[in-house]
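Q: Could you write out the predicted structure for this multi-component system? I'm mainly interested in how the pieces pack against one another.
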Amino acid sequence: MAEEQKLELSVEELEALEDVKKIQAIRKEKHKARRQGEAQQLSITSLMDIMTILLVFMLMNYATDPLNINPSDELQLVPSVSIDKVHERMTTMAITKNHLLVDDKPIVQVKDGKVPVTAKREGEDGYFITPLFDALKAQADNFKKLATYNKSLKFKGNLMIIGDEQAPFRLLSEVMYTAGQAEFGEFEFAVISNQ
Amino acid sequence: MGKRTDRYKKLATGKDVDLVPFMNLLAILVPALLVSTEYIKIAMIAVSSPRIGPSTPTTQEQPEKPPLNLTVAISSLGFYIASASNVLPGAEDQAAQTGPTVPKVTVKVYKARMADGKIKEMMRVWDYNGDKYLLGVNKIEPAALDTKINDIKIMNPSLQVTEELDHNYPALKDKLVKIKKDFENEKQIIVSAEPNTDFTTIIRVMDASRKYKKEPTDEKDNLMFPIVVLSAGVV
């Protein structure tokens, strides 16, 4: 009966049957490919492990670093043989090519390694930079206030100075003098450790 | 119908949790953290400034030797080494000459053109007493220096050698080591400089005075003058 029916099929019907077979073959291949794709997806797990460990490791690194310095064209750090690590949080200030910064906030403009005369209390030859003194004094007072509540903190008058490689000694002395007036007597120069 | 059951089966077993969105999250977080974390190691150098005001009361006993008050003054001509209270070794024969204790010398500077077209200094070499000293005042062997130059040349063929006048840090270190041998207990050095001296020079002077090898065979460095006082006084 079936054979009879098959024999009775016209040319068009035969062609249609061929198409169906082709489509079925394509579907089969697609299915196979999907299956293989699933198998590949499984191997992501090991990559996931690596990624997760990396993520945790980097998050820990990120959290424990007490000092965050982003060198730029304005602030090029000097390499040094020193290997003393930064242990505690302290007030930081930076001497860049264009600004004096206290805790990343620009305080005074710097031009050609000089602070404008208007910012100095005693005129051009003076060492006292008034806006810098105000900013540092506020930082010192803040720290002392915190120290009264948190016994693990103690104000030791430490100031981290992040100096640009081209910062002139005169500007550095002015900064150190002003900081000295604002109760900062011990300085730490930030450098790149090349060891 | 068959398809449906297949799908339900998958859900029911729960074998394939779709990790792709989580992976996406990680793939974004990891580079973001990589960018924000620094790979330069930051170190610090403790420096104090001479305090204005009453000095801290010290013990009344007279020390055997008065403090050395070793001072290195940085000028545009070179370094002046002086002590307020003692005659430094080698200073007797220098009393007659008026120039700096350690004058500037010519150094070889290796520069190369970077990809962005800027010319950048690759290294700086001092020739002192027949030894080569590379920037950072770390002594390295002449052979190693040659291979280093070759390495840079292969990476960047535009390497050029120029000569520049620069401070003689190896000689300064040599002088300070000699002083340290005579005054073993002394740990403090006073650094002062001309107003336009840049920060790099000051740090390099501190580096030169920080450590030394007691004996040439010593593996570890000993501290030389680690306590630095930066004097604002102008030379």
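A: Regarding packing and overall arrangement: The two ends of chain A are 91 Å apart (CA to CA).
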